[in-house]
Amino acid sequence: MRARGLTRRFGELVAVDHVDLSVPRQRVYGFLGPNGSGKSTTIRMLCGLLTPSEGEIEVLGLKVPAQAEELRRHIGYMTQKFSLFEDLTVRENLEFMAAVQGVPRAQTGQRIDTLIEQYHFEDRQKQLAGTLSGGQKQRLALAAAVIHEPQLLFLDEPTSAVDPESRRDFWEKLFELADAGTTLLVSTHYMDEAERCHRLAILDRGRLVGDGTPAQMTAALKGRSFIVVSTRPRRVQHALASLPGVLSAAQIGASLRVLTEALDAVDAASMDALRERIQATVHEVDPDASCTPSDPNLEDVFVAATHDGRAREAA
């Protein structure tokens, strides 16, 4: 899947602003971004549900939106809101979706039996979908989205309303699909889910502000993260917030996670000076506090990417 210059306007609002994407086959590609960043709008354009204002899209060798109808036979789409029929049983929902997706009748029964087993609904086939738990509804929606064995699966914040254990089980199913040959594009705002993806795109206010593997993106921030442990974390946080060069200081329990702004890579002295200012500020507030370098994580990547993207836009 490739997109070039993908743009969508709603009147004066630019929801997606000249986004370039390339998604390889048999990978889990993540869309990370805050609410309103353009994730859902981008997904709707990529799967042919929304016409771009500008740009070019090619999905599975098909031009979108010109060949959107043909594309829909080869893709699945799962939204964050449960969209099946709550007054139908688990099996009836799957039978209905098989008919909608054009699964041959001779194959429908066997396909549904396979999904019932894979998604653990053996003892719930006759249960009304509306009486299922959140995690069970999620599994049923995923089974319905793949009933026609799509080559490409779009998932729009599919785990936003379920518990952590159900999210973990859901992601195991996604990797099973990828191993079987399906390409998946998943939008999320959960950092632990983003870490699971083979590759990530970070969107902010409609712009692509980051793209790469989680390892590549965290490695790019090496030297910019610190952990401060203090008995006065709030006071230290307020002091660091006003310090030039500090991008964020987020409290985590009794410690602070500090992220610095990007400095010129060739100017090591500037980075050393910033580290010294951070340590001096911390010890001025709390002489017993410790300030040590930390490996960057995806939350650091997200904060840095959105900040740097907005700085570039302002410039």
Automatic annotation (TrEMBL):
Keywords: ATP-binding, Nodulation, Nucleotide-binding, Transport. Gene3D superfamilies: P-loop containing nucleotide triphosphate hydrolases (3.40.50.300). GO terms for molecular function: ATP binding; ATP hydrolysis activity. Residues 1-230 form the ABC transporter domain. InterPro entries: AAA+_ATPase, ABC_transporter-like_ATP-bd, ABC_transporter-like_CS, ABC_transporter_ATP-binding, P-loop_NTPase. This is ABC transporter ATP-binding protein. It comes from the Bacteria. Pfam families: ABC_tran. The keyword Repeat does not apply. The keyword Nucleotide-binding applies. The lineage of its organism: Bacteria, Pseudomonadati, Pseudomonadota, Gammaproteobacteria, Lysobacterales. Belongs to the ABC transporter superfamily.
